[in-house]
Write a structure and sequence with these properties.
466 residues; mainly beta; 32 strands
C-alpha cells in the first residue's frame, strides 16, 4: 500500500499462500491500497487455496481488473469483520478475478465507491456471508454504473447481518438476491436499507425473504420505485436502534402502492412507522396510510399526489365534471366536451333559421291591446256584420291563412274597427271559427255566439302568437 509509482505486482509470482496479521494489514491476508499507478494484480496468480484473513482492495485509481486472484478459494475476515472489501477503485470494471471463491465466508461483503463497476460477476460461488463490526452482511453502495446484482445469485439461506443497497444510480432491480431467506440486524438495527437508487423500479429480488426480521426496514429516496412487491414474505420486523422506527418508507416519488407489504402498518413491529403518502397520478387519490391509489371515477378529475383523511368523502379529492364537460386527457381538469360544442352549434343554427322563418310571419306590436305582444297573420278587415243563421261574420280583404286545426275556436285580435265592442283588449276577449279562406265567425271569450248589432267595415285582424 501507498506506493504511488508501482505499476504491477510481478515479482511476487512465487508466493503460493499467505496468513494474516492483526497489525500492518489489519487482519487482511491481502491489502492493496492507495497505489496510484497500479493497473494489475497479475503478480499474485500463484496464490492458491484458502486464505485465513480478509481481502481489501481500495483506492487504486488505475486498477481495472482483479485478474491474478482466480486461484483463491476462500477467505477469512479482517479485524473489521470484512471478508471482502472492494472500494474506491475508480476504473475497476470487473470482479471476475474472484471467480475462484466458493462456499461460506465468515465476514461481510463490501463493494462501494467503484465508479466504473458495471456488474458483480465473479462472486457467483459465494453461498453464505457473516457480518462485520457495523453488523452488515452485504453493502453495495455508491457504484455509479452498476446495473445488476446477478453476481450474488449464489447466496443462499440466512445471512447474519443486514443488507444495504444504496446510491447505485443505474441499478434497476435487486434480482440476484432471491436466494436470501432471512437477514440479521444491520447498521443502526436495520435489517434492510434500500436508499438513493435513482433507477430502481422493483424490489422483487427480495422475494425469497420470509418470516420475521429482527431489525427495521428503510426504503428511502428511490425515485423510480413504483411498488413494494418482493417484501410480501416478511411477516414482522423489529425496530431501528437510533430512531426507533420499524418501517421508514418515504421520498420515493412515484411509489403508487404499498400492497407489497404483507405486515399491517399498525402492527409492523416494536417501533414506530413512517410511511409516505402514495404518489398517485392525476385522476386518482389515496387516503392517509392507504395501501394503494384509488380511481376517482369516469367523470371525475384530480391533481397528482392527492391525499385525503380516511373519513373524508371522495368529493373532497375528486372534482365532478359538469354535463357539458369531459375529463381532460391527463384527468387533471375538466374541459368543454367536443360533443357539447357540436350540439350547441347545431342548436344555435336551428334557432337562427327558426327566427328567420318566424320573422316573416311574426311581428312585435303594441297596437292590439295596451301591452307589447307578438302577433301573426295580420290581415285587413273588409266587413263585419251579422248574418242570419251564422252569427257575426268577419270578412277579410284577402285570404287570412288561418286554420281551425281540430279546435272549434281559437283566440283572435281585432283593432281599428271603430267599434268598442269589437276592438279587443285585456278586458274584451274574442275567439273565432274559420268558415272560409276569407270568412271568420266571431265568438265570445267562451266560444259562444256574439249578440247585438256588431258592424264594422275597417280595421285589422291578427292571431296572438304568445
Amino acid at each position: 500500500q501507498d506506493n504511488p509509482a508501482l505499476t504491477s505486482l510481478h515479482g511476487l509470482d512465487g508466493i503460493m499462500s499467505l496468513g494474516h496479521s492483526s497489525k500492518g494489514t489489519s487482519g487482511n491476508s491481502i491489502l492493496v491500497a492507495r497505489n496510484a499507478a497500479l493497473a494489475s494484480l497479475e503478480g499474485l496468480q500463484s496464490l492458491r487455496g484458502p486464505l485465513s484473513g480478509g481481502l481489501t482492495v481500495k483506492d487504486n485509481p488505475a486498477l481495472k481488473f482483479l485478474h491474478g486472484l482466480e486461484n483463491i478459494t476462500t477467505l477469512g475476515n479482517n479485524i473489521n469483520g470484512d471478508s471482502i472489501r472492494i472500494s474506491g477503485n475508480e476504473v475497476l470494471a470487473s470482479l471476475e478475478g474472484l471467480a475462484g471463491l466458493q462456499g461460506e465466508l465468515p465476514g461481510a461483503l463490501i463493494i462501494e465507491h467503484n465508479q466504473g463497476l458495471m456488474s458483480l460477476d465473479g462472486l457467483d460461488g459465494i453461498r453464505l456471508l457473516g457480518r462485520n463490526a457495523n453488523a452488515d452482511s452485504v453493502r453495495i453502495s455508491s457504484n455509479a454504473v452498476l446495473a445488476s446484482l446477478w453476481g450474488l445469485a449464489g447466496l443462499q439461506g440466512d445471512l447474519q447481518g443486514g443488507l444495504v443497497i444504496a446510491y447505485n444510480a443505474r441499478l434497476t432491480s435487486l434480482r440476484g438476491l432471491h436466494g436470501i431467506g432471512s437477514l440479521g440486524t444491520g447498521y443502526s438495527s436495520c435489517s434492510i436499507s434500500i436508499c438513493g437508487n435513482a433507477a430502481l423500479a422493483s424490489l422483487e429480488g427480495l422475494s425469497g425473504l420470509h418470516g420475521s426480521l429482527p431489525g427495521g426496514i428503510t426504503i428511502l429516496d428511490n425515485s423510480a420505485l413504483v411498488s413494494l412487491d418482493g417484501l410480501g414474505g416478511i411477516k414482522s420486523v423489529g425496530s431501528a436502534e437510533n430512531d426507533g422506527y420499524s418501517l421508514q418508507i418515504y421520498h420515493n416519488s412515484v411509489l403508487v402502492s404499498l400492497e407489497g407489504l404483507a405486515l399491517p402498518l399498525d402492527a409492523a413491529g416494536a417501533g414506530h412507522v413512517m410511511v409516505q403518502a402514495l404518489s398517485c397520478q392525476q385522476g386518482e387519490y389515496s387516503r392517509q396510510r392507504a395501501l394503494r391509489c384509488e380511481f376517482c371515477g369516469d367523470r371525475r378529475v384530480s391533481k397528482a399526489h392527492t391525499v385525503i383523511a380516511p373519513s373524508e368523502a371522495v368529493e373532497s379529492a375528486c372534482h365532478l365534471c359538469q354535463w357539458w364537460q369531459d375529463p381532460s386527457e391527463s384527468r387533471q381538469h375538466c374541459e368543454l366536451a367536443s360533443v357539447t360544442i357540436a350540439s350547441l352549434s347545431f342548436g344555435l343554427g336551428c334557432l337562427a333559421i327558426s327566427c328567420i322563418l318566424l320573422g316573416s310571419s311574426l311581428q312585435l306590436s303594441k297596437s292590439f291591446g295596451l301591452r307589447w305582444r307578438l302577433v301573426s297573420q295580420v290581415t285587413p278587415i273588409s266587413n263585419i256584420s251579422p248574418e242570419s243563421g251564422h252569427g257575426v261574420i268577419l270578412t277579410t280583404s284577402c285570404p287570412h291563412g288561418l286554420r281551425n286545426r281540430y279546435r272549434r275556436s281559437f283566440p283572435i285580435l281585432l283593432e281599428g274597427t271603430g267599434n268598442v265592442f269589437l276592438d279587443t283588449s285585456e278586458k274584451l276577449v274574442l275567439r273565432a271559427h274559420v268558415l272560409g279562406r276569407d270568412r271568420l265567425e266571431l265568438l265570445d271569450a267562451k266560444g259562444g255566439a256574439l249578440e247585438g248589432a256588431l258592424v264594422a267595415s275597417m280595421g285589422r285582424v291578427a292571431l296572438p302568437a304568445v
